């Protein structure tokens, strides 16, 4: 627990798929894909990764000029790369912005996150592809994105940091039978008491069952007798009327 951190320092698909980073089995197929994937960062991407921000959840109509207008207020920009579809040329909704100095990067990372641009609340984080060891992009089952509806939530990033694991060593010892002898004896006696109670309850229920059957039978015969008396009274009334 001493080296625990809410933000992942090294990417592990299995941990990214767990809310607190303690899962031992993958819970969806995407995690399996990411665990089997071998990803090498794109060598065609240039620039300093430590001075680059990742900007996502953009309006598809947002342009490079609009991004430059907004993000230039935090410092001098060296390059903006708005990712577009190779076939259609339309924006994919995310971009990379490289600044000239570290102070501007830190300021934009702090202040630009959740900023509204073209009616869309954007998400801003540091570039992870070239800076986070073991990084697997979302298209291969990794990343820190995903939706709850698809069951592919990812944790350990800025948007969804890990929750701190609950550490209960005493509870584990008691339930695992590693506690003191007194506790083990108490648990055995307790289970014995519950068993005897259940046995007594079964016996008393078996005894009560014939009594209930007799009472139900008696109730049925009494109802039949009452209905016969009512029918005889009705005949007497008819004879009197005649």
TrEMBL record:
An example Pfam family from this entry, by short name, is RRM_1
InterPro entries according to UniProt: Nucleotide-bd_a/b_plait_sf, RBD_domain_sf, RRM_dom, snRNP35_RRM, U1_U11-U12_snRNP_70-35kDa
Q: Which residues form the RRM domain?
A: 51-129
Quote the Gene3D superfamilies the UniProt record gives. Answer: 3.30.70.330
Q: Where is the composition biased (Basic and acidic residues)?
A: 146-162, 180-242
- Entry keyword annotation includes Nucleus: yes
Q: Where is it located?
A: Nucleus
GO MF, any single term: snRNA binding
Q: Which SUPFAM superfamilies match?
A: RNA-binding domain, RBD (SSF54928)
SMART domains found in the cross-reference section: RRM
Q: Which PANTHER family match?
A: U1 SMALL NUCLEAR RIBONUCLEOPROTEIN 70 KD (PTHR13952), U11_U12 SMALL NUCLEAR RIBONUCLEOPROTEIN 35 KDA PROTEIN (PTHR13952:SF6)
Q: What name goes with this protein?
A: U11/U12 small nuclear ribonucleoprotein 35 kDa protein
Q: Which organism is it from?
A: Geococcyx californianus
């Amino acid at each position: 627990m001493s080296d625990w951190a809410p933000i992942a320092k090294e990417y592990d698909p299995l941990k990214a798929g767990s809310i607190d980073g303690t899962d031992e089995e993958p819970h969806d197929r995407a995690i399996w894909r990411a665990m089997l994937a071998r990803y090498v960062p794109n060598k065609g991407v240039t620039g300093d990764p430590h001075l680059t921000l990742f900007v996502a959840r953009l309006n598809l109509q947002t342009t490079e000029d609009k991004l430059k207008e907004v993000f230039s207020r935090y410092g001098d920009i060296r390059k903006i790369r708005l990712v577009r579809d190779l076939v259609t040329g339309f924006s994919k909704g995310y971009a990379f912005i490289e600044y000239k100095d570290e102070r501007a990067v830190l300021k934009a990372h702090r202040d630009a996150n959740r900023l509204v641009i073209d009616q869309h609340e954007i998400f801003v984080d540091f570039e992870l592809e070239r800076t986070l060891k073991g990084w697997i992009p979302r298209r291969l089952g990794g990343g820190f994105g995903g939706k709850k509806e698809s069951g592919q939530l990812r944790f350990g990033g800025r948007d969804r940091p890990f929750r701190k694991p609950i550490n209960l060593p005493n509870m584990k010892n008691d339930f695992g039978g590693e506690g003191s002898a007194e506790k083990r004896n108490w648990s055995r006696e307790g289970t014995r008491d519950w068993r005897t109670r259940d046995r007594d309850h079964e016996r008393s229920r078996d005894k009560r069952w014939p009594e209930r059957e007799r009472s139900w039978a008696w109730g049925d015969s009494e109802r039949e007798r009452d209905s016969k008396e009512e029918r005889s009274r009705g005949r007497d009334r008819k004879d009197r009327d005649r």
